[in-house]
Amino acid sequence: MDTRSSRILEKLARAKADPSLLKSFGAAKHEFTLNPPLPESAIVGFEAEHGVTLPADYRRFLLELGDGGAGPSYGLLRLSAAYTEPFDYPGALTEPSAFVPGTEYSTGWWDDFPGPDDRRPDPLQGTLSVVHHGCSDFTQLVVTGPGRGRLVNVNWDGAVPPYVLEDLDFLSWYERWLDELLAGHRVAGFGDKLPGDEGILIDILATDPAPSRRSRAATSLAQLARLSPTAVRALETATTDPAAAVRTAVLGVAWRCDIEIENAARAALSDPEAAVRAEAISVLRVRRTADLAEQARAQLTTDDPELIRRALQALGDSADLTSADIAPLLNREDHRIRTSAAFHLGDARDSATEALAHALADEHPGVRLLAVQTASRRDDRALLPLLRRMLATESDETVVVNLRRVLGE
């Protein structure tokens, strides 16, 4: 057993000896215990069956440390469960994986993945599943192709873009999980964080030429156990980054981690990008600033549905939302804005009967549905006659079901 494997076992023993770590996501399933290692013959048999040679570090892990067990989230999968022939054609594990280190992937890439010749393509070809994080989220190990030996976080439904982790091999990735776990960092869905301590992440945030990497440095800082004043200042400075994606990421971190950068958030409310302003208003909402209602109300003139949703949420939290704030939104062309408006009428501090009546007649069933539910939440009995008439003419089945429930039929 080499030095790195011995070091991993020592760190794993430390994790197992700390009762508080059993509360971390998924730990109750594996309890920081590895399954017995595999014999060489079992690994050779798997490789022969699938026509591949496993990456050296993963192979060493199976031989020296264990066949699954302790690991990120619910733990490492056994080799026998890492490849269960999920593809529609044989030999998919030998097809080169398209995951390449340093490449930025979009959600659309998953749907448009170019597979080999006329067989059904699958973006998971050439990879093994090593961790199931829950739902459709997995970490895959690239077995074949230019990214061989690297790990990729993927959502099997394609809901979020795949991300090739920066760890150079399986053992480096696994030891980093232990290091961050023992340091008290957040490790749920492990791997999305960039490797490195606070100083390294601050440097990436400030100097890396790639906006995507600067953005990831910001979200990676949020996964540390604690942030120093230096890190907070770095995040505040990054709210003026040239790339909108970075500004958005930084302000998103600020409100999710309740970081005190209200002045930077106020300045960001003048940002030309609606996505940045949406995150900025959420910072003020979480910090419960005295000017929250004023700042949120000023954002209601936008055409961006998400920014309007955040502004309405902030006004609702401030207890200063009125039906007069919402009524103009019920006439917007975008039905998503009208849907948010119908929902947040439930937070209006004054009568919303007239505005709800307007929303109940909306052409979009989603708006009518939210209006029915909001009328029920407000127990607005003045609308009962209208709801009864509506039941006789409503064509959308979901709206009808909700109408019957509200009317007790």
Automatic annotation (TrEMBL):
Domain of life: Bacteria
Occurrences of domain Knr4/Smi1-like (ranges): 37-184
Protein name per the record: Knr4/Smi1-like domain-containing protein
Organism listed in the record: Actinoalloteichus fjordicus
High-level lineage: Bacteria, Bacillati, Actinomycetota, Actinomycetes, Pseudonocardiales
